[in-house]
Every structure is written in structure tokens, then in C-alpha cells.
Write a structure and sequence with these properties.
This protein has a single domain, classed as MFS general substrate transporter like domains (Growth Hormone, Chain: A, Up-down Bundle), CATH 1.20.1250.20. It has 21 helices and no strands. The longest helix has 29 residues. The radius of gyration is 23 Å and the shape is globular. By secondary structure, the chain is an all-alpha fold.
Length: about 475
């Protein structure tokens, strides 16, 4: 009996809080690099005398360009090597290229763009891997809240970078932006050593024939032996059904009748999140304030901190309400207010030409507040839970890649658009996209709250069968 107790204690050596904390910590990398360029860019522009809007856009968006490929590659490799190993690799790449960013030669525009593209590989990989890992580790009743930890980590990373930018703003221009970019290596080092102690996902372990290890991992994060056995049975049943199909999975498989409904839903939500223009605010808020007020962007670094505080507060609100409201209800509410926040300044400017230019900044803060507890966290919750096991790695990679394509295009084109259009008109374009996102959610995205991953998969399969029967009736 004593021996048996000793074994149980040994199996419980990894606390569930540690698994959830470091499982989501990859979001810090994602968030820090989103935020750090916000403060670094005004100093970089002064140091290198950057006046070309296209070059400014490329330096800023290079990370997102690399992330497009990092997300896709990581999704496929994680199906072979596991989520944990790929997160470790991402941390190493992020650390190396963060340091190399700070060592850029003077006026080394091409060097900095290339290095930031490689940095983006790690950022994109983290964006694909963390939601999958967290959804596979979380019980269905808590998956929204625990997956929402990823968003809390992302916005905490952003706030951390904004605070560091603000604290370093009095350094000489040539040093300020270099130190800001180099410090991104610190969270990567913390992530690496934290993930070294994490277990692999139980679903991946079952899929690769390591059932005993899967039982051990489930024992860390489930409340009772019965819950462990029930979930193991459910995972094994799904894995057995999908093993043969997984052997023949191609990109085309994602859009066959069995998977198409869920793939379009998950990929569509991921794409809309970024095409709605959030990163235009997060990357360029000092420049937005500069254009609105005429004050130097380098003196407006308190605004990113304010936006960061709003984001963190919103992510904490989401953790409280995640399991109290349906996913689609929150997405619809957030998207509607976000659309109004972008569209109203353009309308007001037409009706009241002398309106305060700071009005747009106030509306952008309202956008950030509602984005922070709706589209921001729920996108990754949905991406993490909606894809069937057989295609999860590849589909998550595709969703993250399209998310990063949107982020890259927004980061690249926003300086160019604002150089040729009033800011209010640019944001009105994003407002229309927000409206389209709400419509897409209402008609194309199933409700997933409180359902196991296997139940969600069955929902998609049932929808696919219904579509096949409908097509057959039309053909007949």
C-alpha cells in the first residue's frame, strides 16, 4: 500500500497550475514582439532617418511575414514531433533572433527585415502551438477559461513591452530601440526552461501509441480516476477512427465534406481577427497620436501603456465570463462595438469637421476594450478546439498562417494607407470588415462552448453528412 502511494505521489510531481501556466506562456513571445516595435519604431525612425512609409511598413511587418510560414510549418511538425518539442524549438529561435535584432548594423534596413522574418518563424509557431496544446490539456468545462490564458499571456507580453519601451525612452535613440528589441530574449529563456518540465499532450501521446504516458498526464490535470478513464476512452475511440484517415491527410483533405464546415469556421475566424485592423492600433498607436495631435511619436509612449492595461483588464474579464456566455454571443457583441468604434469617427468627422482630432484615439480605446475580451481571446479558443484530431496540426497551422497574413498586410499597408488617406477613412474600412466578421460568425461558425473536442468533431461530421445528402438530392 505504501509503495502504491509512493507511485501516485511520483506521478503527481507536476502541478496542474504549472502545466497551464507554462503551457500558455508561449503567448508572452507573441505579445512582446507585437508590442515592442510600437515603442522601438519612433526611435528607429529618428536614428536611421526613416521617412519611406513602405520601408517602415516592412520593418514593422517582417515578423508577421515570417509568422505566416512559422505557423504553417509548426502545425505540421507538431503532428510528427509533438507540441512540446516544437514550443521548445520556437523559444530557442526567438531568443537567438531577438538578440540579432538588437545587433543590427547602422542603417541595416535589409538586415533587420531578414532577421525579423526569422524571428517571425518562432512567433508564428507559438501562435499555432499554444492554442492546440492548451485545448488538448484542458477539460471541456474549463477549456474557454484555460485557453483564454493564452490571450492573457499575449496581452501581458504586450503590456510588458510597452512598459519597457516607456522606461527606456530616455536612452539615446541609437540605444533605445536596440535594447527594446534585445530584451525580447528574456521571456524566450524563461519559456524554454519552463517547457522543459512540461508533459506532452495526452491526445498526441495516444495518437503516437504512448497510452501509459497519456494516462499519467491526464492524472496531473483531471480531478478523478474515473474522469481520466472516461476521457482516455473518448480519446482512443476518436484516435482509432482517425488514424487511417490521418495517413492520407493532405491540404485538400481539410476541405472535403467531412471536415470542410469546421475548417472554414476556424480558419475564417482566425483570418477576420486580424483583417479587422487590431494590429494597426497596437503597432502604430504613437504614430496615430502624432498624426492626430502633431506631437512627436516618441513623446506618446504612454498611450501604448494605456492600451496595454485595457488589454490585460479585458483578458481578465474574459477569464471570468468565458464559461458564462456562448462563444458566438461574445463574438457578435465584440464585433458590433468594434465596427461602431471604427465607423463613428468617420461619420462624426463628416458631420462635425471641427471635431477634436483626439476623438479617434478615444474610439480606438473603446475598440481595444471590446476586442480584448471577445475576438482577441475567443479566436484562439475556437482555433484550439474546433479542428478534428486527424487534421488539427495542419488546420491550426493554416488558421494561424491566415491570421498572420492579415496581421502582416495590416502592418505593411497601414503606414501607406494613412499617407494617402485620412485616418478616419482608413479605420472606416476596418469597420466594414468588422461587420463582415459578425455576419460570418452568425452563419458559418458552430457553438462550441461546453462540448468536448470529440463532440465538436461529431458536430462537424454530422454537418458534412447533411451537406452530402443535400448535394445528392440536388444532383438527383
Amino acid at each position: 500500500m505504501a509503495k502504491e502511494k509512493k507511485v501516485v505521489e511520483k506521478e503527481k510531481k507536476i502541478p496542474s497550475w504549472f502545466i497551464y501556466f507554462f503551457g500558455s506562456f508561449g503567448g508572452i513571445l507573441f505579445g512582446y514582439d507585437i508590442g515592442v516595435m510600437t515603442g522601438a519604431l519612433p526611435f528607429l525612425k529618428i536614428d536611421w532617418a526613416l521617412t519611406n512609409a513602405t520601408l517602415t511598413g516592412w520593418i514593422t511587418s517582417a515578423v508577421m511575414f515570417g509568422a505566416i510560414f512559422g505557423a504553417s510549418i509548426a502545425g505540421q511538425l507538431s503532428d510528427r514531433w509533438g507540441r512540446r518539442k516544437m514550443i521548445l524549438l520556437s523559444a530557442v529561435i526567438f531568443m537567438i533572433f531577438s538578440i540579432l535584432s538588437g545587433l543590427a548594423p547602422n542603417n541595416g534596413t535589409l538586415y533587420l527585415i531578414v532577421v525579423r522574418v526569422f524571428l517571425g518563424l518562432a512567433v508564428g509557431a507559438a501562435s499555432a502551438l499554444v492554442p492546440s496544446y492548451m485545448s488538448e490539456m484542458s477539460p471541456a468545462r474549463l477549456r474557454g477559461s484555460l485557453s483564454g490564458l493564452n490571450q492573457t499571456m499575449i496581452v501581458s507580453g504586450m503590456l510588458l513591452s510597452y512598459i519597457m519601451d516607456f522606461l527606456l525612452k530616455d536612452l539615446p535613440e541609437a540605444w533605445a530601440w536596440r535594447v527594446m528589441l534585445t530584451l525580447a530574449a528574456v521571456p524566450a529563456i524563461i519559456l524554454f526552461f519552463g517547457v522543459m518540465k512540461l508533459p506532452e499532450s495526452p491526445r498526441f501521446l495516444v495518437k503516437t501509441g504512448h497510452e501509459d504516458q497519456a494516462v499519467q498526464v491526464l492524472g496531473y490535470i483531471r480531478d478523478s480516476e474515473q474522469e481520466v478513464q472516461d476521457e482516455l476512452t473518448q480519446i482512443k475511440t476518436t484516435a482509432q477512427q482517425e488514424t487511417a484517415a490521418a495517413q492520407a491527410v493532405t491540404w485538400g483533405t481539410l476541405f472535403n465534406s467531412k471536415y470542410r464546415y469546421l475548417v472554414i469556421a476556424g480558419v475564417g475566424v482566425a483570418a477576420f481577427q486580424q483583417f479587422q485592423g487590431a494590429n494597426a492600433i497596437f503597432y502604430y498607436i504613437p504614430l496615430i497620436v502624432e498624426q492626430a495631435t502633431g506631437n512627436a511619436a516618441s513623446s506618446a509612449l504612454l498611450w501604448p501603456v494605456i492600451q496595454g492595461v485595457i488589454l490585460v483588464a479585458g483578458s481578465l474579464v474574459f477569464l471570468v465570463i468565458a464559461e458564462k456566455f456562448k462563444r458566438r454571443t461574445l463574438i457578435t457583441l465584440g464585433g458590433s462595438v468594434m465596427a461602431l468604434s471604427f465607423l463613428l469617427p468617420a461619420v462624426i468627422n463628416k458631420l462635425v469637421p471641427d471635431a477634436s482630432p483626439m476623438m479617434i484615439v478615444v474610439f480606438l480605446s473603446l475598440y481595444v476594450a471590446f476586442y480584448s475580451f471577445t475576438w482577441a481571446p475567443l479566436t484562439w479558443v475556437i482555433v484550439g478546439e474546433i479542428f478534428p484530431l486527424a487534421i488539427r496540426g495542419r488546420a491550426s497551422g493554416l488558421a494561424s498562417s491566415l491570421n498572420w497574413i492579415g496581421s502582416w498586410l495590416v502592418g505593411l499597408l497601414f503606414p501607406v494607407m494613412t499617407a494617402h488617406m485620412p485616418q478616419a477613412a482608413v479605420f472606416a474600412v476596418f469597420g466594414v470588415i468588422c461587420v463582415l466578421g459578425v455576419i460570418f460568425t452568425r452563419f458559418c461558425v458552430p457553438e462550441t462552448k461546453g462540448k468536448s473536442l470529440e463532440e465538436i468533431e461529431e458536430q462537424g461530421t454530422h454537418h458534412g453528412r447533411a451537406a452530402e445528402l443535400k448535394d445528392a438530392d440536388v444532383t438527383d
